[in-house]
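Hi Y.,

Following your request, here is the sequence exactly as I used it, all 134 residues.
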Amino acid sequence: MNLDYLIKEFMAKELITFQLDTPIEAAMESFLTNKISGAPVLDKQGNLVGVLSEKDCMKTLFEATYYNNLGGFVNEYMSTDLKTINIHDTLSNVADQFIKSRFRRFPVVEGEKLVGQISRRDVLRAIVKLSNEE
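Below is the corresponding structure, written out as tokens. Let me know if you'd prefer a different format.
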């Protein structure tokens, strides 16, 4: 099976994102409302600067209960240790990255700009679809 298809054919393009100055409470509410477990964080120019996850929010809530102080902004809690995928990457390369990584999804960038997201499920769905087409 040929897995040299570009990931841009299989990635999600419509994403919920946060700004650096999004209140952390609003971000947590967005997770619950939209049933998502993480979201990219963008600066004012639309560049990817971090990711906020449920785990980041749980740490926030734990600290808030201890210190009796919930508040702040996404930039105070987000992860900045990012692994990104280039929009011109292939399905086989991304599948390999997932096998070697603990991450369940990768932001997809073109330069510094966020253009989408690819998840393990997206890759699995693509491989099943391609194998059924053969």
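Residues 56 and 76 are 10 Å apart (CA to CA).

Thanks again,
Q.
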